[in-house]
Amino acid sequence: MLKAKVTVTLKDSIVDPQGSAAERVLTSMKYPVESIRIGKYMEVILSENDKVKAEEIMHEICQKLLANPVMEDYSFELEG
Amino acid sequence: MLKAKVTVTLKDSIVDPQGSAAERVLTSMKYPVESIRIGKYMEVILSENDKVKAEEIMHEICQKLLANPVMEDYSFELEG
Predict the structure, then answer these.
(1) Does A45 score more than 90 pLDDT?
(2) How far apart are alpha carbons B32 and A54 in whole angstroms?
(3) How many structural domains comprise chain B?
(4) Cβ-defined contact of B41 to A8 (cutoff 8 Å)
(5) What torsion, rounded to 10 degrees, do the Cα atoms B32, A46, B40, A73 define?
(6) Closest A-chain CA to B18
(7) Which of B31, B40, B41 sits opposite A61 (nearest CB)?
(8) ipTM of this model?
(9) Strand order in the sheet with B33-46
(10) CB within 8 Å of chain A, chain B residues 23-52
(11) A35: domain CATH number?
């Protein structure tokens, strides 16, 4: 059993209205915030013990379902 | 300038329908997935160079805006 911690973020060139809204709120509250970008975080438990196979599987899963490769970047760490 | 990498996850006792849906899809596609929990990931750039102050600010921001402390846990790392 391995755990993958996945982060999915919008590519830098893609506008992030949700992040901009949070940024505006915090700036208006006088917090020293320069920018916020909001993405997704996922914890996937795999019933696979081989780290190499698990890595291949995670790349497939990220590309097919968890991230949109046109607009988003993903990265993951395996723990186990 | 410091960068905070924030992850916000639903507490274990809270049902995560979005994660369950992803889990069902991947299981039906024969991926060896046992569970998925979906949360949020945020990158906050602070115009503050003192790590101690930045940590205090991030706790406040997380509790007030980025996470809902009733249903969610948060954690962050500062990089600079």
Answers:
(1) yes
(2) 9
(3) 1
(4) yes
(5) -70
(6) A42
(7) B31
(8) 0.91
(9) A72-79, A2-10, A33-46, B33-46, B2-10, B72-79
(10) 25-26, 31-48
(11) 3.30.1280.10
The per-residue pLDDT for B80 is 85
| Nearest alpha carbon to residue A8 among B67, B40, B75, B58 | B40
User: Using a CB-CB distance cutoff of 8 angstroms, which residues of chain B are in contact with residue A57?
Assistant: 31-32
Q: What is the pLDDT of residue A80?
A: 85
Closest partner residue to B34 (CB to CB) among A19, A31, A46 is A46
Question: What is the enclosing helix (H) or strand (E) of B18?
Answer: helix B17-28
Phi-psi region of B30 (alpha: psi -120 to 50; beta: other; left: phi over 0): left
pLDDT along chain B (80 residues), means of 10: 97 96 96 97 97 97 96 96
Instruction: Say what the pLDDT of residue A28 is.
Output: 97
pTM metric for this prediction:
0.92
Distance CA A8, CA A38 (A): 9
User: Which residue range(s) make up the domain with B58?
Assistant: 2-79
Distance to chain B for A79, nearest Cα, Å: 15
